[in-house]
Design a protein that fits this description.
Blueprint: E1 16-17, H1 32-47, H2 56-69, E2 74-86, E3 93-98, E4 108-113, E5 116-119, H3 121-124, E6 138-142, E7 151-158, E8 164-165, H4 168-187, E9 198-199, H5 202-210, H6 214-224
Helix pairs in contact: 1-2, 1-4, 2-4, 5-6
Length: 234
């Protein structure tokens, strides 16, 4: 049974100025996007050990900065996000995500880079789910391809490269986090592994489902039933 969209408050929201056992992802030796995702996730867990799953803004800044260092153009986007979440026993499926129905800073942030939408956020949804939830993947979806109907983004703000946070305290914290990301990258003796698989296309979804991934199987069932994610009315 599909449940309601559950807006999750985030404590990293800020105004920005435009200046089951999860499947591990084994990345090619030279995959700067995959490495940026892995480094940002590792750094987030180290820098914010108690609530890293609430820190999507910092994660997105980290991903964008690491890609910029590789010569890849990357833009932050702020807005709302929703997707399917399934219980660990497979008995319950709802739509959950991050959203706001009022003016103010966005509740969620992601990155557009290399022709892809990049977001660690789906992987973090189980940490604040309304029930014990099965693991979700990282989103790495081509912008030129429509998102599947079980996931939905609503853009509210798009920021230019080099955008900074207005709030001086949060800006200083973000600067320290970016330094931590670069230190993690520079001190890594080998490529880092992602703790979850990457949803890159329909084939990756089918492959995960065939391997028994509970969320992938539930999301394919969502599609089979011709259902479509939607945000609640403001």
């Amino acid at each position: 049974m599909l449940g309601p969209f559950l807006p999750n408050p985030r404590d990293d929201r800020a105004r920005i100025s435009s200046s089951n056992t999860p499947l591990l992802t084994f990345m090619p030796a030279r995959d700067p996007v995959g490495q940026a995702l892995a480094i940002a996730d590792t750094s987030l867990r180290e820098f914010f050990p108690t609530d890293f799953y609430k820190r999507c803004m910092y994660a997105s800044f980290g991903i964008a900065a690491l890609l910029h260092d590789e010569g890849i153009s990357a833009h932050l986007v702020g807005g709302d996000f929703i997707c399917t979440v399934v219980s660990r026993d497979g008995a319950q499926m709802t739509l959950q995500g991050f959203g706001t129905t009022h003016d103010g800073p966005p509740s969620h942030y992601w990155v557009l880079a290399g022709g892809q939408l990049l977001d660690l956020g789906p992987m973090y949804l189980p940490y604040e789910s309304s029930f014990p939830a099965a693991p979700l993947p990282i989103l790495r979806w081509p912008i030129a391809v429509d998102l599947p109907d079980f996931v939905l983004y609503r853009e509210r703000e798009r920021y230019a490269e080099g955008a900074e946070i207005y709030d001086p305290v949060m800006r200083e914290k973000n600067s320290a986090f970016l330094s931590h990301c670069r230190s993690t990258r520079d001190n890594a003796s080998r490529s880092l592994l992602l703790p979850a698989w990457q949803l890159e296309d329909s084939q990756s979804l089918r492959y995960a489902a065939q391997k028994g991934d509970l969320w992938a199987k539930a999301s394919m069932e969502f599609l089979r039933r011709s259902l479509k994610a939607s945000f609640p009315a403001d």
